[in-house]
Known about the structure:
The chain contains three helices and ten strands; from the N terminus they run αβββββββαβββα. By secondary structure, the chain is mainly beta.
Amino acid sequence: MDASSVAARKQPVSWIVQLLEWTTADFTIRLSTGGFIPWGEKVFLARDLTYGALGELPTFEDGIDSQTTRANITIIPPDPTALAAVADRAHQRTLIQVWDATLDGDTGYLVGEPDLLFRGIVDFPRLVISETWEVVLECGTEESLLNEPNEDRRLSNPFHQSVWPGETGLAYVTGLGRKVYWRANTPAGTGGGGYSSGGGGGNSANQY
């Protein structure tokens, strides 16, 4: 944490607030738990007139063992139009960040640099309909993608072009019919060939 921010928190009058920035292809929302807060060229508001206000932020904690950090962030839209915009599934895997910040109690301005609490991506939205309309953004860290299985990834021309459209480097390559395992051990007894991330039962003479 920034040294001046730490020093300010030891003073009798200081406020600790959180800042949220959510960036999508359609909009960028900057919200705070402490009202109007300028930070450089950015301005964080208690309520965005179009998309609403922060409802709840979780306690951000590190993941345990093979788990990565997860966070549920609640946004309260002002109307059905905003609800549909915020909950649009097109925003999946968009960047969302939360900072912890210190405000001077007399001026209301930031002291030092905010401390990054969470940097992640939106996994999926969940609607809560009661007295208010709420959108709970279930978020994970970018590192969580490393834990996803890659059964759909193959050393083949169709998959290669799905990543790099028009790049025909594998179009006329032979010997790609073998099963290739990405970030997984080759199952025992499957015979030779293919890349292996370790431990598999392939014939090393046929390895690339």
